[in-house]
Write a structure and sequence with these properties.
alpha+beta; globular; four-stranded antiparallel sheet; 116 residues
Length: 116
């Protein structure tokens, strides 16, 4: 199955509202990622810290009307430079991660290696 992927670069203040908007517009999944290489290490108990720059991705079925979805976004995100729509071809996702997994060394003698 083919999917449509909508990507937005947003601020942390916009994250909750836009996540809700994408889900309400028919997104089957919404992902928040760091778009600026800013690690979040050991947050305090009960805290949900977000990065200074966030990439919000909504995944839609191929027949979704993304023009309608875009009209539901705040006006500043409707500009073509503020969002990106991509076609995501179906793959064997259960095995896709294996292409990027490499042996890792811990200490002098311990290696974690893929079995394949």
């Amino acid at each position: 199955m083919t999917w449509l992927q909508l990507r937005l670069d947003i601020s942390p203040e916009e994250a909750s509202d836009l996540e809700s908007r994408l889900l309400a517009s028919g997104a089957v999944a919404v992902t928040l990622q760091d778009s600026g290489n800013q690690p979040v290490l050991e947050p305090s108990v009960g805290a949900t810290p977000l990065w200074d720059s966030i990439r919000l991705t909504g995944l839609y079925p191929a027949d979704a009307d993304l023009m309608d979805v875009l009209t539901r976004l705040p006006p500043h995100l409707q500009a073509p430079t503020r969002h990106r729509v991509e076609i995501l071809e179906d793959r064997e996702w259960e095995r896709e991660w294996m292409a990027h997994y490499r042996p890792m060394q811990f200490g002098q003698r311990l290696w974690v290696c893929p079995s394949w």
